[in-house]
């Protein structure tokens, strides 16, 4: 399936591409556009104004995608959603002290290449976050 979002991805869009490819559509192909009117007709748009998979009711796009694809029961994904939310929106809805650091890391990585490169280098970051919070949930404490 083809997915489309705005070019120059940062925290929410990078997290969404990881979420989509890992949990929704392993064969996802991404298109990055500078003009929302340039979204291909056969693509599902996300993290753009006025689209179903965007910011709604104070939530970031990552949270919207979690709900849309029934992924809200995974505690590790829920914790990542809180971190992404705070990094993207900084509205203090969640206690996510990791958010500023993750935001800086992803912004810096986005400065080292194009959007495809950013997706590639941020994948292990989100894989690591997911595994950490998955194990923390299983153990009932932070893993060593």
Describe this structure as you would to a colleague.
The structure is a single chain. This protein is mainly α and 144 residues long. The chain has five helices and three strands. It has helices at residues 11-24, 61-68, 75-89, 99-110, 115-139, and strands spanning 2-6, 29-33, 43-45. Strands 2-1-3 form a three-stranded parallel β-sheet, with no helix packed on it. Strand 1, helix 1 (11-24) and strand 2 form a beta-alpha-beta unit. Helix 1 (11-24) packs parallel to helix 2 and helix 3 crosses helix 4. The longest helix has 25 residues, at 115-139. It is globular, with a radius of gyration of 15 Å. The termini are far apart.
Number of DSSP helices? 5
Uncertain segments are: none
Strand residue content: 5-15%
Going across the biggest sheet, name each strand in turn.
Answer: 2-1-3
Please tally the β strands and state the result.
3
CA-based shape:
globular
Termini gap: 38 Å
Overall SS class: mainly alpha
Mean pLDDT: 96
Q: Work out the helicity level.
A: 40-55%
Largest sheet: 3 strands, parallel
Q: What order do the helices and strands come in, and which of them pair?
A:
Elements (H helix, E strand, L loop, with lengths): L1 E5 L4 H14 L4 E5 L9 E3 L15 H8 L6 H15 L9 H12 L4 H25 L5
Parallel strand pairs: 1-2, 1-3
Helix pairs in contact: 1-2, 1-5, 3-4, 3-5
């Amino acid at each position: 399936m083809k997915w489309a979002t705005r070019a120059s991805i940062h925290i929410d869009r990078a997290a969404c591409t990881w979420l989509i490819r890992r949990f929704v559509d392993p064969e996802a192909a991404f298109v990055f556009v500078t003009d929302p009117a340039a979204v291909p007709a056969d693509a599902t748009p996300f993290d753009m104004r006025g689209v179903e998979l965007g910011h709604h009711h104070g939530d970031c796009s990552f949270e919207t995608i979690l709900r849309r694809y029934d992924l809200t029961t995974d505690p590790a994904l829920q914790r990542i959603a809180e971190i992404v939310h705070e990094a993207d929106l900084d509205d203090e809805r969640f206690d996510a002290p990791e958010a500023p650091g993750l935001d800086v890391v992803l912004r810096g990585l986005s400065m080292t290449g194009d959007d495809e490169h950013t997706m590639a280098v941020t994948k292990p970051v989100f894989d690591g976050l997911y595994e950490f919070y998955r194990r923390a949930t299983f153990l009932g404490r932070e893993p060593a």
